[in-house]
From TrEMBL, chain A:
Organism phylogeny: Bacteria, Pseudomonadati, Pseudomonadota, Gammaproteobacteria, Alteromonadales
Domain (Rad50/SbcC-type AAA): residue spans on this chain: 5-256
Pfam family, one: AAA_23
GO BP annotation list: double-strand break repair
The name this protein goes by in its record: Chromosome segregation protein SMC
UniProt entry keywords in alphabetical sequence: Coiled coil
Coiled-coil residues: 207-234, 451-478
Molecular function in Gene Ontology: ATP hydrolysis activity
UniProtKB/TrEMBL annotation, chain B:
NCBIfam families xref list: DNA_S_dndE (TIGR03184)
A family per Pfam: DndE
Lineage: Bacteria, Pseudomonadati, Pseudomonadota, Gammaproteobacteria, Alteromonadales
Protein name per its UniProtKB record: DNA sulfur modification protein DndE
Length: 662, 121
C-alpha cells in the first residue's frame, strides 16, 4: 500500500482545500521512502496524522471507541473554525488516494469522508476501475479488511504516545495487534465457527420433543435470570434508602448529644434539688439576719467596748469607795469614842485625825467622776451581752460558710440545669429517632426479602441450566450427531495444536526480529539484550546477559520510545504487511545518540513509504542532511496567526531559506 | 440619754433602704452595724457642726437599736460626755453615716456579713 494523495478541506487548522502529494519519488533505481513534514508546534502536523488515521480507521482512530453521538461531536469539532464562522453550512472533507492489492485486484482506491457542522459523516469509496454503490458500513468493513483496526496503531502513531506500548504489561496493546498481524485470529474464528456449526447441527437434528423442551427451558431460564436481575436491581435501589435513614439517625443522635441529652434525663431531679437548696439557703439567710439583728454588731467595736468597760469598772470601784467613805464617816464619832477610850487618848484628837484621813482619801477619790452610773445588775447584763456578741460572731461565721457552700452548690446546679435542654425539645428528636429505627428495620426486612428472592430466582435459573446441559449432552449422544461431533472435536484439537505451534513459531520469530531491531536502535551497552515474549499475553520482556528480566518500568521515557519502535519494526517485518508508516513527533524524548540511531536505521528501513511529521528541533539541519538521500520530498506547514489557519508549502525549513537566499 | 424617737439623714436613709433591697438586711440592723464600725474607728462627731437628721423614717429608739440599745447609749455617753438628748442623737446619726460608707456597696447578704466578720478581730 502506498499513499498517493491526501486532500483535506476545512479540516482542523486547514481552511479551504489542501492537496498533498505523498507518492515517494524514485531516484533511478534507488527508492526514497521518506516524506518529511516540518512544522512548529501547533502548525498542524498532528492534523495530518489525524486525517490519515480517521480516513483509514474511522471511529477506531479515537483512543476509546465512541458512540454515535460522541463521534459526531468529535467530527464537528474537527471542522475548521474559520470556515464554520464564515459559512454555517460549511463542510469538512478528507480524502486519501492509495494503491493497494485487494482481493486480487491491484489498483488505486480513494476514500473520502465528508461531514458538516452536525458531525454526520458520509463515506465514499472509489476504485479506479469501477464505481461501487456501497453503504457507509460496508465501506468501513472493506477498509477494515485492508487495514485491520488493531494494526493501525502500530503504523500510524504519535512517537511520544507510543511509549505507552512499552509501559503496558497487560498485553492489551499488543495482543490483538499481534494476533491479527500473525494471522492467529483466523484460527480462533475457525474454532468459534465450528462451535456454532455444532450447535446448529445438534439443534436441527434433535428430536422435536427434546427441542421443544430445550426452548421451553431456555425461555424459563432466561426469565428466571431476568427476574433475578430485576430483584438485584431493586435491592440496589433499596440499599441507599437504608443508608440515608441510618445517616439521618446518626445526625439526630449527634444533635441530641450536642444539646446535652444526658443532662436532660436528670433535669427534673435536679430541679427538685434546686428548690430544696433554695429553701435551705433561705433558712440560712434567715439565720444570718437573725444573728445580725442580735448582739452581733457589738463585736464590730471591741476596742471601744473595752474602753467602755474599763470606765465602768473604774466607776464601780469609785462607787464602792464612796459608799465605804459614807459609812465610815457616819461611824467616825462612834469610832473615835471607842478608840480614845481604848487607847486612853484624847477623843477630840482622834476624831480630828480620822476626819483628816477621810478628807484626804475623799480628795483622791474625787479625781474620778461617775458619768455613766449604772447598777451592778446592768453591768453584769452588759458583760453577758458582750459574751453573746462574740458567740454570735462565731455562729455567724459558721452560718456564713454554710451559706457559701449552699450557694455555690446552687450555682453549679443552676448551671447544669441551664445546660440541659428542655425535655420537650428533645422529645421530638427521640420520637423521630424511634420512628427511624422502625423504618430502618422495615427497610432492612424488605431488602433482605428482595435479596432472598433474587437468590431463589438465580438458583432456579442455575438448576434449569444444569438440566439444559443434560439435554444437550443427550442430544450429542444421538447417533446422527456423533459423527459431526467427532469431526468437530478432532478438528478443534488439531486447530488448537496448530495455533499453539504457530504461536510459538511466530513468537520465536518475533523475539528474534525484535532483538535485531532493538540492537540496531539502542546504544552500544544494550547490544547484548535479548527479548522474551510471553506466548499467551504477548507481553514483551527484555532480558539481559545473565538471563535476568529487566523491569520496563525502570526504563526512561526515551528508552521506552526506542523499545516501542523496536516492537513496531519487528511486528511490521513479521507481518509482511506493506503499510506506510506515519510517525508524529518521532524524536521528542530521545537523546542525541538515540536520535542518531533512529534517523540512520529506523526511518529509512521502516517501510516503502515513511511519513515523518517533525518540528525543526527534531529533524534539524544536521539530521536533515543525513536523511536527505532518503527523502523523496518535504513539506513545510506554516501557521498564520492572523487567520489562525495553516498552509502547506513544498520544501523543508532550511531548503526554503536556501531558496530565498538564492 | 438618747431621745425616744430618732431619725437619720435622708441620704443615709436612702442608702440603707437600697441596701435592704440588695441584701435583705433591714435599715435598723444595718444602721447598728454601721454605728459599731464607726465608733470603733477614729471618727468623732463635732457638735459644732449642725447635722441634719431630716429622714422620714422616725422610729422608736428600741426599734432602731434593739439589743444593742444599752451598749449604744453607754458608748455614746462615754465618748461624748457633754452631749445630751438631741445632740447625742445627731452624734449617733453621724456615726451611722460614717459607718455605712463601705457597706452601701454590698449587693448580697453573704458579702455584707462576710465583710462584717472579717473587719477587725
Amino acid at each position: 500500500m502506498i499513499f498517493k494523495k491526501l486532500t483535506m478541506k476545512n479540516f482542523r487548522v486547514f481552511n479551504g482545500e489542501h492537496s498533498l502529494d505523498l507518492q515517494p519519488k524514485k531516484d533511478g533505481l534507488l527508492s526514497k521512502p521518506i516524506i518529511l513534514f516540518g512544522g512548529l508546534n501547533g502548525a498542524g502536523k498532528t492534523s495530518i496524522l489525524t486525517a490519515i488515521r480517521l480516513l483509514l480507521l474511522g471511529r477506531r482512530a479515537l483512543s476509546s471507541i465512541p458512540n454515535n453521538k460522541e463521534y459526531a461531536d468529535y467530527l464537528s469539532q474537527q471542522l475548521n473554525n474559520k470556515a464554520k464562522k464564515e459559512d454555517n453550512s460549511a463542510k469538512a472533507s478528507i480524502s486519501l488516494a492509495f494503491t493497494h492489492t485487494h482481493q486480487g485486484k491491484h489498483g488505486v482506491f480513494t476514500i473520502t469522508r465528508t461531514w458538516g457542522v452536525d458531525g454526520k459523516e458520509k463515506i465514499s469509496f472509489e476504485h479506479a476501475d469501477e464505481d461501487s454503490n456501497l453503504t457507509s458500513e460496508q465501506i468501513q468493513s472493506v477498509i477494515s479488511e485492508m487495514i485491520p483496526p488493531g494494526i493501525g496503531d502500530l503504523f500510524f502513531f504519535d512517537g511520544e504516545k507510543i511509549a505507552e506500548l512499552a509501559e503496558d504489561d497487560t498485553g492489551v496493546y499488543l495482543k490483538e495487534a499481534v494476533q491479527k498481524l500473525l494471522g492467529l485470529d483466523i484460527i480462533e474464528r475457525l474454532n468459534i465457527d465450528l462451535d456454532i456449526y455444532l450447535n446448529k447441527e445438534s439443534e436441527g437434528k434433535a428430536s422435536a420433543t427434546i427441542q421443544k423442551e430445550i426452548t421451553d427451558l431456555q425461555k424459563q431460564k432466561e426469565s428466571f435470570k431476568a427476574e433475578a436481575e430485576a430483584y438485584k436491581e431493586q435491592a440496589n435501589e433499596l440499599y441507599p434508602k437504608i443508608t440515608s435513614l441510618r445517616f439521618e439517625m446518626s445526625q439526630i443522635e449527634k444533635s441530641i448529644q450536642e444539646r446535652g441529652g444526658a443532662f436532660a434525663i436528670t433535669r427534673d431531679e435536679e430541679k427538685g434539688k434546686q428548690k430544696s437548696l433554695e429553701r435551705e439557703i433561705d433558712t440560712i439567710k434567715g439565720k444570718v439576719l437573725h444573728e445580725l439583728d442580735g448582739a452581733f454588731p457589738l463585736s464590730l467595736a471591741p476596742n471601744a467596748i473595752n474602753g467602755l468597760f474599763q470606765q465602768l469598772a473604774k466607776e464601780k470601784e469609785l462607787k464602792a469607795k464612796q459608799s465605804f467613805n459614807e459609812h465610815f464617816l457616819a461611824q467616825t464619832e462612834k469610832l473615835a469614842t471607842t478608840l480614845s477610850s481604848a487607847l486612853a487618848a484624847d477623843e477630840v484628837q482622834v476624831n480630828e485625825l480620822l476626819k483628816t484621813y477621810m478628807e484626804s482619801e475623799g480628795r483622791t477619790n474625787a479625781e474620778g467622776t461617775i458619768n455613766l452610773d449604772i447598777s451592778d445588775r446592768e453591768f453584769h447584763q452588759l458583760e453577758s451581752l458582750r459574751d453573746d456578741a462574740s458567740e454570735s460572731k462565731a455562729r455567724l461565721s459558721n452560718t456564713l460558710s454554710e451559706l457559701t457552700a449552699a450557694e455555690s452548690d446552687l450555682d453549679s446546679l443552676t448551671l447544669r440545669i441551664q445546660r440541659a435542654p428542655d425535655e420537650k425539645e428533645l422529645i421530638g428528636l427521640y420520637e423521630r429517632l424511634r420512628e427511624l429505627d422502625k423504618a430502618v428495620a422495615k427497610e432492612k426486612d424488605v431488602y433482605k426479602d428482595v435479596l432472598q428472592k433474587a437468590q431463589t430466582s438465580m438458583a432456579k435459573a442455575l438448576e434449569l441450566a444444569k438440566r439444559l446441559e443434560k439435554l444437550f449432552n443427550q442430544q450429542k449422544n444421538e447417533k446422527s450427531l456423533q459423527k459431526a461431533v467427532a469431526r468437530v472435536s478432532s478438528t478443534q484439537g488439531a486447530l488448537q495444536e496448530f495455533s499453539k505451534q504457530l504461536t510459538q513459531l511466530r513468537v520465536a520469530q518475533l523475539e528474534e526480529l525484535f532483538a535485531l531491531a532493538y540492537r540496531k536502535l539502542a546504544r552500544k551497552e544494550d547490544l547484548k539484550l535479548t527479548a522474551k515474549i510471553n506466548p499467551e499475553t504477548f507481553d514483551v520482556a527484555l532480558v539481559d546477559l545473565d538471563g535476568m528480566e529487566i523491569n520496563r518500568k525502570s526504563l526512561s521515557a526515551g528508552e521506552k520510545q526506542i523499545f516501542a519502535f523496536a516492537i513496531l519494526e519487528a511486528l511490521g517485518k513479521l507481518s509482511g504487511k506493506v503499510l506506510p508508516v506515519v510517525v508524529d513527533t518521532p524524536l521528542g524524548r530521545l537523546d542525541s545518540k538515540h536520535r542518531d540511531k533512529l534517523i540512520k536505521h529506523y526511518f529509512p528501513e521502516a517501510g516503502e513509504q515513511v511519513i515523518l511529521l517533525s518540528t525543526d528541533t527534531e529533524v534539524d539541519a544536521d539530521f536533515y542532511s543525513i536523511l536527505q538521500p532518503e527523502v523523496s520530498h518535504a513539506f513545510e506547514i506554516n501557521f498564520d496567526e492572523a487567520t489562525r489557519c495553516s498552509s502547506v508549502t513544498e520544501g523543508y525549513f532550511w531548503e526554503n531559506e536556501k531558496a530565498e537566499i538564492a | 440619754m438618747l431621745p425616744n424617737r430618732m431619725q437619720l439623714s435622708r441620704t443615709v436613709e436612702e442608702q440603707l433602704k437600697k441596701l435592704k433591697g440588695y441584701t435583705g438586711v433591714t435599715p435598723n440592723v444595718s444602721a447598728r452595724i454601721a454605728f459599731f464600725r464607726s465608733i470603733e474607728s477614729d471618727f468623732r462627731y463635732d457638735p459644732a457642726t449642725e447635722y441634719a437628721t431630716n429622714g422620714s423614717l422616725t422610729l422608736d429608739k428600741i426599734t432602731w437599736l434593739g439589743r444593742t440599745q444599752e451598749m449604744t447609749e453607754l458608748l455614746l455617753k462615754h465618748t461624748y460626755p457633754d452631749l445630751e438628748g438631741k445632740q447625742l442623737q445627731q452624734a449617733w446619726a453621724a456615726h451611722v453615716e460614717h459607718g455605712v460608707g463601705n457597706l452601701r456597696n454590698f449587693r448580697t447578704l453573704r458579702d455584707i456579713s462576710a465583710y462584717s466578720i472579717k473587719s477587725k478581730v
